[in-house]
Every structure is written in structure tokens, then in C-alpha cells.
Amino acid sequence: MLREAGAVFGVALLQKPTQARRRRAPAAPTAADRRLLASNIELPLYVREGVEAYMLDHPGSTFRTVVMSGFRALGIEIEDEDLIPERAMRTPRKREALEGDKPTTLKPTTLRLPRYVRVRAEEYLLDFPEMRFRHLVMAGFKKLGIKINSADLVTERQNVLASPRRQV
Fold this sequence. Notes:
Structural class: alpha+beta
Radius of gyration: 19 Å
Low-confidence stretches: 1-19, 159-163
Mean pLDDT: 75
Number of helices: 5
Helix content: 25-40%
Number of strands: 2
């Protein structure tokens, strides 16, 4: 019985999806689903500057609402009330470029999103196994009209060291 189940799951895992997975309609988020979860991502400096310019052009938006608006533009269901910022946006200030900073320098960013948004984003990523969460965030920015270099949307292959027992 276990062997049969393993074979079935093994075949399902080896096959690439030919079409998008069928998603069930998401239920309305509960209070627990609206709890904020922190995600740490690294974005190129020019992307951060592009988001700040977008926020200046769209008064009342915050980094979180811009990310969620991008997710909505990609087709991820986001509740309307979550697109309203909880507090006023701090005016982005022009920071002095540090010595050695390039527009492509990655800057760590902590992003706090409601739990249900993170879950829906992860479900969306199941259809795109080569895409990472930071690429999804940048794809949403691109959908909103923020300039993103296409090279930054490509996942870099990481070299994996083979174990001595495994033949490559």
C-alpha cells in the first residue's frame, strides 16, 4: 500500500505541470489570517528607488500596499481593505549613495504582509517552480509600471555540490 502511494506521488512530483493548477476559491481571511508575517527579501537599489518614486506619484500608498497592488495585478486575490494603509506613508528621503553602491546592489528589505497574502503568493508560486518570492514581488512591481530589468527576474542557478555517493 505504501509502495503504491509512493509510486503515485513520485510520478506526480516528476511530471511538470502543463497547465496552471486548479485553485479553489480562497475563503475570506479571518483575524488570524490578517496577522502580519515578516519576510526578508533582497531587492536591487534601483528597484527600491523606483518603488519610492511610485509611492510619491500615488499618495497614500506604502511599500506594503504597493507590493500587494502588484500581487493583485498578477492575479492574486487581495482584499480591498488590505490595500488601505494603516498609517500615513513616511516621505521617502533621498539617501546619499554609499561608496561602492551600484544600482544593482542588493539591499535587504523586511516586508510585513498579512498571513493570507503570503499563503496565496506561495500558492501562486507553485505554478512557477523556477520563481522565488523576491522575483514575484518584482514581477508585481513591473506589472504596476515600475522599471525592472528583465535580468533581475531570472533565477540564477546555484551550483549544488554532489555528494561522493551520488553520481552526477
